[in-house]
Amino acid sequence: WHYPFENQDLFLCGIIRPAHHCSFSGDNWKDEVLELKTLAEELGINFHQCHLPYYTNKIYDDNNEEFNRFFWNMFDRGIEICKMLGITAAVVHPFSAEADRDDVRAHVAENRRLYGPYAEKAAQSGIRFAFENLSRSIHFSSNAEDLLPLIEEFRAENAGICWDIGHGQMNYGD
Question: How far is 95 from 110, CA to CA, in rounded Å?
Fold first, then answer.
C-alpha cells in the first residue's frame, strides 16, 4: 500500500497549545519527530513544508512575557523539527505593527524585529520562511502588495510567499 499523497504540509501550529496534548509539545518531542520520520519514509511521504506556530493576536504584546517566552521556544522548536525532517519551507503568519493598516514600513519593521533572528537561524539550516497571506483585509499581509516588501526585507534569508488560495478568495472574491 502506498499513501496517495507524496508531499505533505506538517502542521506545527498546535505545539503552542500543549493543553490539547499536541505532538511535539512535550519533553519527548525529538523521539516523536523520529517516529514520524520513520513512518513517513515507510509510506513514501515527503514533508516539503510546514506551518510554524503563529501568534493568535495579529499584534505582538511585548508585555505578555510568559507566553512570549513559551511561544518563541516552541517556534524555535518548530525550526528544529523542520531541520530533523528535511523540511525546506516554513510558512509563517506576518505580524501587524501597532500602526495604520497601510503603514507597510512599520509592519515590515515589526516582522524584522520579531522574526529576524529565527529567519537567520532557519536559513542557516536550509529552511526558508514563506510569509502567508492572511484572510481578513483589515490586517497587514492580506494582499500580495503587502507580502512583496516582506520578501524584500528577508531577501538575505531567502524568504518567499505562501499564497493561501482560500484566504485570497476571501479578500479578492472570485
Answer: 7
Q: How many whole angstroms separate alpha carbon 39 and alpha carbon 2? A: 12
Q: Is the pLDDT of residue 1 over 60?
A: no
Q: Give how far Cα 63 sits from Cα of 8, 17, 69, 77, Å.
A: 36, 20, 11, 22
| Gap between the Cα atoms of 13 and 133, Å rounded | 16
User: Which strands sit side by side in the sheet containing 160-162, from one edge to the other?
Assistant: 7-11, 46-51, 89-92, 128-132, 160-162
DSSP class of residue 132 equals: E
Neighbours of 63 (CB within 10 A): 7
pLDDT tens for 97-136 read: 988 988 999 999 999 999 999 999 999 999 999 999 887 7
Residue with cell 505533505: 8
Quote the DSSP letter at residue 103.
-
CA distances (Å), origin 157, targets 38, 121, 130:
29, 9, 11
pTM score: 0.90
Residue with cell 505532538: 23
Give dist(CA 19, CA 75) in Å, integer. Answer: 17
* Cell numbers given for 1: 500500500
